[in-house]
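User: Hey, my collaborator sent me this sequence without any context and asked if I could get a structure. I don't really work with proteins. Can you help?
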Amino acid sequence: MHPASDEICNHFFTEPTFVPLATPPSRLDNGERLLASDIRTLRKARGLKLAEIALKLGRSVGWVSQVERGLSMPSIGDLGALAALFDVPVSLFFSHDVPEECERGVIVRGARRRLLGTSETGLVEELLSPDLSGSFEMLRSVFAPGAELKVEATRQTEEAGYVVSGTFEIEIAGVWHRLGPGDSFRFEAKPFRWRNPGNEPAVVIWVVSPPVY
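Assistant: No problem. I've predicted the 3D structure and written it out in structure-token form, which is a compact way to encode the shape of the chain:
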């Protein structure tokens, strides 16, 4: 049997309301544990309290706590609301499936990466980390030709990147740096922007600590 995310996704679509889990926490499906862990990590990374999440979602604090502990399963509508609240694609909450149970939380196969973003935004990212429960996350970021982050972003994280291919420019604390294949960067809690001035996609392996995405 292969009970991970296929069962979870089917459960989302057939049960559109909040459903308490009858399974004790120690026996929960590993995919359900990872979903709960991802939601808790995203909330903490944004400095939000349980009460704030509950208020924004129109839910009780108890319900949010149960979701984060894997005791209650959110509906597909709840996941959409959480994604909007955390400013992440709802696809982040799916695709916890693994070909072998021994690989869960350890290995990510190339064909099973969680896709974040769309080509329309100029940035498509794939989550290389198995989940968001660790001290950092690793992403494969593909920047389309001409794509750019026009408004500076600042987050309370330490970040590093390695340019695999293409031309990639990043502004860190007001200073622009032009990078090519083999170049890398690192910064911590500093304003940054990026752009791809080239005619081909720029591929960057990006590491963020703690996870925010």
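In plain terms: The chain has two domains: 5-101, 113-209. You can pass these tokens on to your collaborator as they are.
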